[in-house]
TrEMBL record, chain A:
This is Phosphonate C-P lyase system protein PhnK. Pfam families: ABC_tran. Keywords: ATP-binding, Lyase, Nucleotide-binding. SUPFAM superfamilies: P-loop containing nucleoside triphosphate hydrolases. It comes from the Bacteria. The gene is phnK. Residues 5-250 form the ABC transporter domain. It comes from Roseicella aquatilis. GO terms for molecular function: ATP binding; ATP hydrolysis activity; lyase activity. InterPro entries: AAA+_ATPase (IPR003593), ABC_transporter-like_ATP-bd (IPR003439), ABC_transporter-like_CS (IPR017871), P-loop_NTPase (IPR027417), PhnK (IPR012700). GO terms for biological process: organic phosphonate catabolic process.
From TrEMBL, chain B:
Residues 137-152 have a biased composition (Pro residues). It comes from the Bacteria. The keyword Cytoplasm does not apply. This is Carbon-phosphorus lyase complex subunit PhnI. One of its GO terms (molecular function) is lyase activity. Residues 135-154, 165-189 are annotated as: Disordered. The keyword Lyase applies. GO terms for biological process: organic phosphonate metabolic process. Keywords: Lyase. InterPro entries: PhnI. It comes from Roseicella aquatilis.
Amino acid sequence: MTPLLSARGLTKLYPGGRGCREVSLELDAGEVLAVVGESGSGKSTLLSLLATELAADAGRIDYRLRDGTVRDLLVLGEAERRLLLRTDWGFIRQDATQGLRMAVSAGGNVGERLMAVGARHYGNIREAARDWLERVEIAPARMDDSPRGFSGGMRQRLQIARNLVTQPRLVLMDEPTSGLDVSVQARLLDLIRGLVAELGLAVVIVTHDLAVARLLSHRILVMKDGRVIESGLTDQVLDDPAAPYTQLLVSSVLAA
Amino acid sequence: MYVAVKGGEAAIANAHRLLAHVRRGDPAVPELGLEQIAEQLALAVDRVMTEGSLYDRELAALALKQARGDLVEAVFLLRACRTTLPRFGHSAPLDTGRMAVRRRISATYKDLPGGQVLGPTFDYTHRLLDFTLAAGLPPPPPAEAPAEPDAPMPRVTDLLADESLIEPSPPEQPGAPVGDLTREPVSYPTGRDTRLQALARGDEGFVLALGYSTQRGYGRTHPFVGEIRAGAVMLEFVPEELGFPVPLGRIALTECQMVTQFKGSGERPPQFTRGYGLAFGGCERKAMAMALVDRSLRARELGEEATAPAQDEEFVLAHCDSLQATGFVEHLKLPHHVDFQAELELVRRLRAEHAARQAATPPMLQEAAE
Amino acid sequence: MTAMSTRGFARLASGAAGTNFGYLDEQTKRMIRRAILKAVAIPGYQVPFASREMPMPYGWGTGGVQVTAAVLGPADVLKVIDQGSDDTTNAVSIRQFFARTSGIATTTSTAAASVIQTRHRIPEHRLKEGQVLVYQVPIPEPLRFLEPRETETRRMHALSEYGLMHVKLYEDIARHGHIATTYAYPVQVAGRYVMDPSPTPKFDNPKMDDCPALQLFGAGRERRIYAVPPYTRVRSLEFEDHPFTVQRFDRPCALCGAADTYLDEVVTDDRGGRIFVCSDTDHCEERRAAGHRGEAA
């Protein structure tokens, strides 16, 4: 079976040499891939490239559509690409204020994608929003509140509901738990793990936190200076790292 | 019985007569002549010409007089006049290297071929009110230097370009269309030609504030004044039927070339970059601010991260024009009672609904909700 | 006499008569007409045009004036209204401008006009075939306050990404129980482009639908022209279970007794006294001439 997502030779360099060089990866349906590395390693650039928010200097990104055909996202027409991004894909951002419309109520945030694909029945949109808020453990009574009044953990859960309402097959996550209290982190990770399993989501998650990678991912990519230096099954890589840099990363976590 | 208001026509006519009267002021004070304005308020005239996009000292002086000294209003008058003028084409590129220089300074070199020429400048004056001027005393005659008509005065950027230390000037493209936002609608992203035109026409205060913001860290470019030169340049036009340039006359200009930092990218070696400013007459502050903003607006072209207002082409171009800004701000004076009526009706309804909800909630719950 | 003032007098002698019919030169009018034709061909689409600097301020009707100038012919009869009235200062000023620069006939009668330039209202009298209604538009982009960037909004139009408009309506209903947009209420034209009807009260939206007259919209400062050709479908945005509704006044016009018109509220004293009268002054006068009377007449 062809993979759901396949990137080849993705490159994007900034003045000064930072960025992402010749990165290739594959992802099957229902599979969770973690991308780890220090800040500046190019992992966030990689995620922006996959999301087609950044234009690559070189490379291609093949995606298998629901009808089975495989298309290179970098040459896909803009209309098709944007429709794909807001229906079949999700993007959970580290900074929830970038991923949510802060001036719009929680219900409106969840309903937006439905309205974007043509839903025009207020009552039905509201019903779907209520259902999704419950699934991410946000009380329906908060539905008409602005996310400005939400805690960090709630905002992330709202982002998840907002993205999953159209039942995407692929979700990109950029450090979704960083900056949250440990107990809030644990609850969020638990929720993500449950939803991923229940919905069979494929996920690319960027994190600097190896514990998050171990908990959520099946496979892992280790990045340094814009390149992938090691990849493999998560448990294997973390338990028996081959690259000296990965060994350092793992040992620094143990030491901490 | 109620009678609806009428008589806008008479009110407008009377308001304009009163305006004409007030403009003239005390008839015992001699009327200002256009030549007085053009000669003695020369920098106001220069600014009105620059932002009005029309090089005509007489018309600019008239606009200033008619506008009672309001610069934006004077620019408005000049622009409205410009609209009615036919556009024959565009001039040949100006060669400011052949400028008859009246002022020329560089902050990047202590001395250079042609020398530093201060010219008539406010710089280094102590800003003390001059009461001899109030008394109308004539100034002492200017100092004179022996004329050196053929002394070369190369542009500083050309000196740097000889060593490839600065990016080359964009190559001349004969026959390529020249952007003109007064004839073609702007679509974003736009070219540098159109951006420069917009900045030259832009409100001096706005462009100045944006340039200033880049110095304070909102899109920093590490600028140096490579050179400011002011003087007269020959304007040439190539009529299609002749095919060679015909001189139209000389115009007074101030040009500023900022030399700014650039780290280099994958393909390009580190090199200084340029920011360019040009204004009619002696609008030096404008030319400098324009050069700063021009450079900031090149962020994307140079692969720099664009986050500051002065790096945002759409923001800068959409808001730099004083006429667009003043028109839209001042249009709030026009009657809006139809829309206001619609909002009144809504607010009354929302208040009534709110009151009804409050009344329907038992007092116990009201307290709990607070 | 000096050279400078001689030149000034020469200009003076050529005077106002020196400007072309309708102020704009023919080349500019052709450019505007090309934009209008394109706008008519793609109903609701905002066509960029090279708006000229007019002798009146941006935001005061420069777009409408340019469109009117481009469509006016010597045989036309022009009506200009602002807030529904022919007598408001800006309407008077624009009417005078065209009377002076084109010498054409002007009128206050909706039925007698061939071209009507308006700000903020659509006349109550049903327009007829052959008439042109020219709207003055301050902000042509219905998505502007949801997304400030031109580059982005143009893309949203191109891809029909109008979900965000409905998010705004959704928020209204969630907060107030009904849609709280009262003017400049967005419409969808011919099933495709979402369009700003200019800041007319939503009361006027239904008049745009299937209208026999040609509707042209000019935004001078923002440099856009758009159009609704005659007999085109114009739908106000709504939800299936929250349909579009218009304002209703709970009393008739105090002057002519009309119960189906848009009313201005006039404060008559400082003790809370107020009466409601037709905003469309021509319509009100016609009704009174026909013998209709309200309570204050």
